[in-house]
Amino acid sequence: MLIMLCVLVGLLVFGISLGIYLHSSPLLRRGIRTSAVCVNVGQVAAGSMLLLEYTPVGAPARQHTVGPFVFPPVRVGGRMDVIYDPKRPQEVSLPERLPKSTRGLVIAMVVSGAVLAACAVWIV
Fold first, then answer.
1. 37 pLDDT more than 90
2. Which among 17, 19, 34, 43 could disulfide-bond with 108, CB atoms 3.0 to 4.6 Å apart, if both were Cys?
3. What is the torsional sign of CA 92, 62, 42, 77?
């Protein structure tokens, strides 16, 4: 039972770390910061969602939804910075929602991979 719990926790940590790494790594490496304008504010149970419009270099304008916010940082017509991947302009994030580096994510993947390997050796 303990081994199964270790495997589940290891898989969960590895999967979450990998997902964050795959999303954040290109934006940290080659992301371009630009200003986006808020074109709509919608309400959900957790707060306000903002529809932002930004224009990647040499491409048509794109829209991206961010949130939820308890207190939205801008109103319709207001501007805020976003970071997008020039190779995949649909990949976008707010600067404050990106990790400072991917080192911690890589460490989490390595440790959880080691836990999974130890559980596999223990099972066999």
1. yes
2. 17
3. positive
